[in-house]
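README: folding subset

This subset contains proteins for which both the sequence and a predicted structure token string are available. Records are stored as plain text. Below is the entry for Glycosyltransferase family 9 protein (353 residues), shown exactly as it appears on disk.
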Amino acid sequence: MKILVIQQKMIGDVLTSSVLFEALRERYPKAQLDYLINSHTFPVVEHNPFIDNFIFFTPEAEKSKIALWNFAKSVKKEKYVVVIDVYSKLSSNLITALSGAKTKISYHKPYSTFIYHHNIKRRNQTDEACGLAIINRLQLLEPLDIYITAARPKIYLTSEELETSKQFLISNGVSLDKPLIMISVLGSGPNKTYPFEYMAQVIDQIVATTDGQILFNYIPKQEADAQAIFKLCKLETQNHIYLNLFGKSLREFLALTTHCHALIGNEGGAVNMAKALNIKTFTIFSTWIDKDTWNIFEMENVNESVHLKDYKPELYKGKREKDMKPHAMELYHKFIPDLFYDKLNRFLKMFRS
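--- output ---
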């Protein structure tokens, strides 16, 4: 039996959807379990023992209808019995439609119901700590008689990766006996990035409260923006920041994060990865992202989060978060750090050196 799970695009989505595989392996121990993803997201699921093969959605298939058609036909040749389309967009609709699978599962959308045998309606609320992002994915397993109410994404690092990252930190003057905090200084785009001056104030507060050591999470092409935030920090704070110590690859970032006491900053893939590594998190949500969906495993003193809606609910009255996307930057300027300093300080007390 061959089963394909489709989850294209973002790192956080690919990591979150990987929870399906452990449950599938338990239900079908001899099945071939494959994962269709974008290649740049592979590091977060590399070495996952429950996934047999990876199929990489190519850049050509994203840009060309002919390439997408040919890609879908290549997937059809694998003769999957079950296809679980978590992505549920036009490209994955086509891949699933042409797959020839006897069982096709996805989320309910009026325009694509004819493609799938099972169209699962998303829930919009849950009491489970794992959050809606997990709950809605687990619902996709129910047509296969798999009923679980919670699962946690996991990232699998090698002992060599862990030891190399440890020695890298030590050789660059980082003490593993003092608080070490990773800052997710930049989001995936401007409308998912806390304003630079506000982020600098947050970092000042972290250092003042913990006297800790600070690492920035960014990639080389974001260096100018990381430098800009660094320069907005107080001089005393700058002395605690190891600006040039960062993971040059996603796997290096993951390994470095395992040695941190917490990850604090913009909501996104970095937060989800930290949670999968069992690192404490404090998340600042973008003003238009639905916190109820993505604040997975929320727990006091473990994984905490803040959203402008928590403090100024009147701004969202009668509206959904995604309706606010065109006004994200304007709303961000109302989301001043003073609003959540009390909550942040309570969280930081755990890391005082």
